[in-house]
């Protein structure tokens, strides 16, 4: 059948996102600060399919009032204002974290593998769908109602798991290379001023 991402193989089907996921828009949490004990995911914490950086936090009293906005392993968070199309898979490491303003939490049902679904959102034609369905011009945004109409290609669950495993393994390799590159850049930045101030320190570095 013809779907958003093209012709689907036999055994695949296309459904609307709202039919397979529970969608909840994040609340306004203006009191989130770096010292809080309960991390709050914001758009800046959403990287290339994963959560990144240091999250701000709220105190236990605030977190207790926001119980329905806590994240679970297997959730996917999506940026709804600015930077549309960015998304991240929630892992056990982030269990119990909160999600705040500018975010939508997607909780896949039993018929969807979370890793597969997270990678599906990275498909170029899905990313194009985000752009075409955004509202506003200066700061594009998408509502939960609109996001719920996203067509999602669903293969048999064993194929979902296989796709998620293959792409997940590649993501891990990308993350390792990124960490190596970051560490190398930090070493360069630390050496640069010292070497310019002490050229004799170059002796032996090339050996």
Automatic annotation (TrEMBL):
Q: Which residues form the Type I restriction modification DNA specificity domain?
A: 9-180
InterPro entries referenced in this protein's UniProt entry, alphabetically = Restrct_endonuc_typeI_TRD (IPR000055), Restrct_endonuc_typeI_TRD_sf (IPR044946), Type-I_RS_S_subunit (IPR052021)
Per the record, the domain of life is: Bacteria
UniProtKB keywords: DNA-binding, Restriction system
Q: Please list the GO terms describing molecular function.
A: DNA binding
Q: Which GO terms describe its biological process?
A: DNA restriction-modification system
Query: Which family does the record assign?
Result: Belongs to the type-I restriction system S methylase family.
Put simply, this protein is called Type I restriction enzyme, S subunit
Origin organism of this chain? Streptosporangium subroseum
The organism that produces this protein has a lineage beginning with: Bacteria, Bacillati, Actinomycetota, Actinomycetes, Streptosporangiales
């Amino acid at each position: 059948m013809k779907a958003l991402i093209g012709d689907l193989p036999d055994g695949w089907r296309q459904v609307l996102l709202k039919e397979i996921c529970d969608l909840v828009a994040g609340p306004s949490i203006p009191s989130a600060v770096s010292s809080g004990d309960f991390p709050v995911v914001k758009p800046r914490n959403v990287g290339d399919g994963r959560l990144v950086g240091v999250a701000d936090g709220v105190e236990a009293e605030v977190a207790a009032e926001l119980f329905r906005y806590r994240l679970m392993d297997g959730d996917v968070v999506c940026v709804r204002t600015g930077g549309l199309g960015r998304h991240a898979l929630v892992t056990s490491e982030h269990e119990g974290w909160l999600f705040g303003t500018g975010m939508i939490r997607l909780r896949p049902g039993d018929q969807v593998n979370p890793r597969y679904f997270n990678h599906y959102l990275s498909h170029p034609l899905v990313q194009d769908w985000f752009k075409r369905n955004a509202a506003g011009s200066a700061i594009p945004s998408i509502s939960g109602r609109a996001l719920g109409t996203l067509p999602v290609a669903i293969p048999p669950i064993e194929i979902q798991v296989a796709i998620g495993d293959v792409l997940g393994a590649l993501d891990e390799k990308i993350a390792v290379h990124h960490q190596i590159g970051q560490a190398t850049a930090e070493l360069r930045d630390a050496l640069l001023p010292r070497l310019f101030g002490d050229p004799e320190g170059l002796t032996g570095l090339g050996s």
